[in-house]
Specification:
InterPro entries: AB_hydrolase_fold (IPR029058), TEII (IPR012223), Thioesterase (IPR001031). This protein is α/β, with parallel strands linked by helices and about 250 residues long. Helices cover about 30% and strands about 15% of the residues.
Length: about 250
């Protein structure tokens, strides 16, 4: 099983790469509008896990370490370039695990980690995630209760029928989550959260400070758990402002 990285808008002269990891059940199309709002020296790649969008025929991951192994292999197959990583919700945990792997390997050089809509992994959030074995109605009700809302796409019955199987697989993957070991990251770490997201109260975000020995920041937006959709422009603007400037040749 592989993880595919989709270049959202090729920029041969880019000097920074931004890797984007979606929330549970979502695919690479979540980030399709991001390049228009990013600086021209930043080239964005979206992670496409198996089982969704153009990979419906591929079995999704349900084992955490296998997923991280595949993710690391795909990233390391790209030419080395200063790299920032963004992950939302489940994607935040995967982004943090990937960042540890890349730091240990020493390449590519990490310039920033952005984790979004996820409490610090030591705060018991994984254990309280909705169980993948629930029936459809109970699963969706549990998600709505935890996050305060559901992704807009799940309001469409056709999309929901396709999305629920991969969502269940992602929840199984989350249950198998393992914290990365080793020293804190050496790159800056920024935490994003929705001010009205019941799953990320302010007290659950401060723990991320232990994840880095470099600069640390928390920024909240006015939306809920899925502010990545409702506040996309403000979010991408904040990411852009925190990335390194263009390299001088």
């Amino acid at each position: 099983m592989e993880v595919r990285l989709k270049c959202l808008s090729p920029r041969p002269m880019a000097t920074v790469r931004l890797l984007c990891l979606p929330f549970a059940g979502a695919g690479a199309s979540l980030f399709r509008g991001w390049p228009d709002a990013l600086p021209p020296h930043v080239e964005a790649y979206a992670v496409q896990f198996p089982g969704r969008e153009d990979r419906l025929a591929d079995a999704p991951f349900t084992r955490w370490e296998r997923m991280v192994d595949a993710l690391e292999g795909s990233v390391r197959s790209l030419h080395p370039q200063p790299t920032a990583i963004f992950g939302h919700s489940l994607g935040a945990l995967a982004a943090y695990a990937l960042a540890h792997r890349l730091q240990h390997a020493g390449t590519p050089r990490l310039v920033h980690l952005f984790v979004s809509a996820r409490p610090w992994h030591g705060d018991g959030a994984t254990a309280s995630a909705p169980a993948w074995s629930l029936d459809d109605d109970a699963l969706l009700a549990g998600m709505a209760a935890r996050f305060g809302a559901l992704p807009a796409s799940l309001s469409h019955p056709e999309i929901r029928d396709v999305a629920l199987p991969v969502l269940r697989a992602d929840l199984r993957l989350l249950e198998d989550h393992r914290d990365p070991s080793g020293q804190p990251l050496a790159c800056p770490l920024t935490v994003f959260a929705g001010a009205h997201d019941p799953s990320t109260p302010p007290s659950s975000l401060e723990g991320w400070r232990a994840g880095t020995s470099a600069d640390f920041a928390i920024e909240q937006f006015g939306g809920g758990h899925f502010f990545i959709e409702s506040h996309r422009h403000a979010l991408v603007a904040s990411i852009s402002a925190r990335l390194p400037p263009p390299a001088r040749w």
